[in-house]
Amino acid sequence: MSEAQTNQPIETNRIQARYWIETAYPLDDAAAIMAGEQSTGTFVRTPGETDELRALYAARVESVRELGMVETPSLSGSGLPRKRSGPIPRRTAEVTLSWPLANMGTSLPNLLATVAGNLFELKPFSGLKLLDVTLPPDFLSAYQGPQFAVEGTRRLTGVYGRPVIGTIIKPSVGMTTEQTAAQVRMLAEAGVDFIKDDELQADGPHCPFEERVAHVQRALNDHADRTGKRVMYAANITGEIDQMLHRHDLVAAAGGTCVMVSLNSIGLPALVVLRRHATLAIHGHRNGWGMFSRSHATGMSFIAYQKFWRLAGIDHVHVNGLRNKFCEDDASVIASARECLTPMFAPPHKGCTIMPVFSSGQSARQAPDTFKALGSMDLIYAAGGGILAHPAGPAAGVRSLHQAWEAAAAGMPLADYATMHGELRAALERFAE
Amino acid sequence: MSEAQTNQPIETNRIQARYWIETAYPLDDAAAIMAGEQSTGTFVRTPGETDELRALYAARVESVRELGMVETPSLSGSGLPRKRSGPIPRRTAEVTLSWPLANMGTSLPNLLATVAGNLFELKPFSGLKLLDVTLPPDFLSAYQGPQFAVEGTRRLTGVYGRPVIGTIIKPSVGMTTEQTAAQVRMLAEAGVDFIKDDELQADGPHCPFEERVAHVQRALNDHADRTGKRVMYAANITGEIDQMLHRHDLVAAAGGTCVMVSLNSIGLPALVVLRRHATLAIHGHRNGWGMFSRSHATGMSFIAYQKFWRLAGIDHVHVNGLRNKFCEDDASVIASARECLTPMFAPPHKGCTIMPVFSSGQSARQAPDTFKALGSMDLIYAAGGGILAHPAGPAAGVRSLHQAWEAAAAGMPLADYATMHGELRAALERFAE
């Protein structure tokens, strides 16, 4: 079985990390430099770096798999091996390293300094990207992982047998709390299961958090009282730690079920504190992730990235969507979403699976391909225009999404199912690709 | 005066951010898309986005300065303007946007989601990098900034009129607490002012934090009792927030004066909590920064990056060094260091300047060029091999650094000064470039 399928390190007391590299150095030398720099080594071998110490603590090169040559370096500033100059071949490869767990202990911040850290700046590399990490289940004694995840989100929203249909409050900033609550009421009446703040909306003076949550939750509580349906509202609590804990408690007191945080803005330790405190689902927004992902030659893949945040305790995370409006291609979107639903640890350990959130340019159109590629309904399917811009109004927009997922589940082409379902038919006409 | 010189936004109630972009879109359109996406806009103009709302909350394009054309896109996945296909010209430019402070308030996490956030993934851009941010001094009511910085670090170390001479404990991991303390004692006796843990060394079972700090501080306290010289030891407290606060207190109780954190591992809110709690200097390690900086086409410059951390409260930050062993060139190193010493806010507001830490392949060699380029002695000059590998031993290594900086201050060529100073002469022979 491949690593990707098991997600288990080869040895249970070692951390493993897989990288894409590009280098003018012999590949084995390059891998050894990575391992040395991130464990016992330094630029100059020091007297203290004994053989015994190396045997116990040195990172190990587990594998080096050559991928191919490149003509020009992907990134500038890298160096050449000694005594070489002029144009020399650069190779790309996948390298897997491992470390004894004892080097950093079960600490996500220190794990990050080890598997990422200074590696990206090392001179021999004109490209180096972290592709994946595999961790021993010992980390579960230090981190709680998700509290609600798929099952808890279904329980809180009462949605089973189909994706949770979500949407976002727009415009991002500028609406008053009353205007926001009015939009939320309209969206709840249209039948959505989930509504989130925009990540740009936090606690500005024009729409202060406390007042916004009070108004929005009142609208959603009224809706629940009238219809029995409790819509999940992911209130953006991003801020300093004391603010986030206070805002979490305000949401809980107002009857809410979810809070949202911008992961890259708050960092892992803040999320850990929030998770310990939380009685609500935590919706992870990955804005800023493009900094890690946009270059093929540096940063880290979402596959590696999301594992840190899952262990730290998010329940949902954004993965874009098929044919989205950003730069990410469909294969990457699906790989990300599948990873969210793949256990990080084998039973009897907690798998820490979470709910992927599909969004960005989503309408009824992408449902069948999404289902086919993912093989699961365990996702939040968020549409903005796909609901609001439906010609027959937002309620029809939501119904068109239900119908699209019914067709997907039944394995029927959308066009066929649309002959019997007017909302889907109108959606396919409106949201032509 | 240019922005770079004043570091003040044009209007005192607006945030400003400067970007490098690469796009196939007309530049003004591209800039408008950035501004729209990160404020009132969405992919589709929604009914709520009224003209009044836009006037109050929309981000503004302050300037667009064309830089030149590129033949091929720097990053893959970007899109073309409507009705265009095939090879079309891509332009690069510097774009400055501004936002009303009210959009995100004086919140660094929410500022980050605004000035960085989803921008990097926007389809029209085959390159987009955040170059700088300028903030109104209102942020000083929410953040404390550095507590010790240059002056406090000089007071704590008793070093005046020259750089603080530092070194790092090596090997990174694997030594026992006793071995670590023995190395520290040797380095103190050699005359260093500052010693730091490696960022890979935190609280592993082979060198537990509490025991390491106890042993190391005992050695340094003994040294201070004997010599009157208090060496600053930056103990790596990186971890979860409760761990960091506890470790900070252990260091303080043991008589230490400094703690170190891996910034990218802990995040801004955790640093803010640590700063509020801290009675010791905070040494900021930027490992992982390569992910933001290695590509010219995505991420953010150190100039922007370090402003967030300075406001949040670090006292020192790493900037590599001239002719370092990483990929960063000298111009970037000097620009980073100068920025650390440049006030973020004009008097009477706190400037939040901090102490840059030069390291990586540093020896006596780089002192004159560093002084010339920086125009200041307000730095930590850290050398590993440059001290330990000196032919006459580490004390001579430290003296060679003092002599090199004396020469730099006097404007004398190193070779001339070396004729009268044997340690410097030996260093120049040993550390040939």
Description:
The structure is a homodimer of 433-residue chains. Chain A is an alpha/beta fold and 433 residues long. Helices cover 39% and strands 18% of the residues of chain A. In chain A, the strands form two sheets. Chain A has an eight-stranded parallel beta barrel, surrounded by six helices. Chain A has a five-stranded mixed sheet with strand order 2-3-1-4-10. The longest helix of chain A is centred in the middle third of the chain and has 19 residues, at 209-227. The model of chain A is unreliable at 1-6 (pLDDT under 50).
Layout of helices and strands:
The structure is a homodimer of 433-residue chains.
Chain A: H1 3-6, E1 14-23, H2 27-37, H3 51-57, E2 60-70, E3 90-100, H4 108-115, E4 125-134, H5 149-157, E5 164-168, H6 177-190, E6 194-196, H7 209-227, E7 232-236, H8 241-253, E8 258-262, H9 263-266, H10 268-277, E9 281-285, H11 290-293, E10 298-300, H12 302-312, E11 316-318, H13 330-340, E12 355-358, H14 367-374, E13 380-382, H15 385-388, H16 394-410, H17 414-418, H18 422-430
Parallel strand pairs in A: 4-10, 5-6, 5-13, 6-7, 7-8, 8-9, 9-11, 11-12, 12-13
Antiparallel strand pairs in A: 1-3, 1-4, 2-3
Helical amount of chain A: 25-40%
Q: Which whole number gives the mean pLDDT of chain A?
A: 93
**How are the strands ordered across the major sheet of chain A?**
5-6-7-8-9-11-12-13
Total beta strand runs of chain A: 13
CATH homologous superfamily grouping of the largest domain in chain A: Ribulose bisphosphate carboxylase, large subunit, C-terminal domain
Give the DSSP E fraction of chain A (strand runs of 2 or more residues). 15-25%
In CATH, the architecture of the largest domain in chain A is Alpha-Beta Barrel
Largest sheet of chain A: 8 strands, parallel, barrel
Whole-number radius of gyration of chain A? Answer: 24 Å
Low-confidence stretches of chain A: 1-6
The greatest interface between two protein chains, and residues involved on each side, is: A-B, 95 and 97 residues
CATH class of the largest domain in chain A: Alpha Beta
Please, what is the oligomeric state? homodimer
Straight-line N-to-C gap of chain A: 39 Å
In total, the number of domains of chain A comes to 2
The helix-and-strand class of chain A reads alpha/beta
